[in-house]
Amino acid sequence: MDNREVILDIQDLHARFHTQDGVVHAVNGITYQVHAGETLGIVGESGCGKSVSMLSVMDLLAKPPAEVQAEAILFKGEDLQHFSQAEMRKVRGSNMTMIFQDPMTSLNPVLTVGFQIKEPLKLHLGMSDEEATKRAAELLELVNIPEAENRLSDFPHQFSGGMRQRAMVAIALACNPTLLIADEPTTALDVTIQAQLVELVKGIQAKLGMALIWITHDLGVVAGLAERVIVMYAGFVVEDAQIDELYGNPLHPYTLALLKSLPRLDQRKEEALATIEGLPPSLLERPQSCPFEPRCEFAKPKCKESNPLLEAVGPDHKIACWVDIKTGELR
């Protein structure tokens, strides 16, 4: 049981997109909490709703075509659904910030990096240009960019991919946020730079004490970073557990299949990597049965009849599954 203050409480969140082909049910009633100082990993394959769920919380989806509904989206006890656009801009710039997947499209190519770091400092903290310049240089030093003061006048194209992503981290940290959301920030980077960025964010988080949500499809990154992991599939949360429990005792067939598909150091050369047969379901119709059933090795007739709710199966461990994968029988 986590006794830390709950800073983000998402209750029954739905996100849909109205398209020419029909309504895409991207997020289908997810519920979870994030505590102060906690590191939460959200994992799942592409299209499972990881990023859309966070963009919904941040109110960054264009409406239309998007439609977002929730029982509540509480941030520090206040429901963000009742905030005006001006109030949401204040929250996004200072208390809750996001690092996006591609720094080249996130940074404005015609503005200097220094200008883009200084902008939230002036807007949200009321700093003068001189104060903001000094703080911007400190932030670039914090994210390990050499000769930080001289780099403030550079444009994004003069930074390498890893440095651009570090600059994005600096912008996100400018106003000392309570919650930092990182949306697959290492995807476009090579492995050594990925590791550096993960260590950098971990160090900064420990220093500032902020909560962190790390969205990724890479279970290896999550293993060395998160305290708790949420596994998503077809817009649903299918497993929610502490990191050691999830890796040591996965209880949902999809989580088990994901972990089996990871390469291992003790794996023999002749052993093929496990794969998950089939494809994720089309989300043009909201799944009424278990969405993983067609690909699941443990599937039972009941799995076709209805979709299980996310329920506790142990301390701080929840799954949405009808079957006990250890016995192969219904729960």
Keywords:
single chain; 331 residues; alpha/beta; eight-stranded mixed β-sheet; five-stranded antiparallel β-sheet
Description:
There is one protein chain. It contains 12 helices and 15 strands. 33% of the residues lie in helices and 25% in strands. The chain has helices at residues 50-57, 85-95, 103-106, 113-125, 129-142, 148-151, 161-173, 191-208, 219-223, 243-248, 253-260, 301-305, and strands spanning 6-19, 22-35, 39-43, 66-69, 72-75, 78-79, 96-99, 179-183, 211-216, 228-233, 236-242, 311-314, 317-319, 323-324, 329-330. By secondary structure, it is of the alpha/beta class. Helix 7 (161-173) packs parallel to helix 8 (191-208). The radius of gyration is 21 Å and the shape is globular. The mean pLDDT is 90. The two termini are 24 Å apart. The strands form 3 sheets. An 8-stranded mixed sheet has the order 7-8-9-3-10-11-13-12, with helices on both faces. Strands 1, 2, 4, 5 and 6 form a 5-stranded antiparallel sheet that branches.
- Please give the largest β-sheet: 8 strands, mixed
Mean pLDDT: 90
Q: Label the structural class.
A: alpha/beta
Please report the number of helical segments.
12
Query: What is the 3D shape?
Result: globular
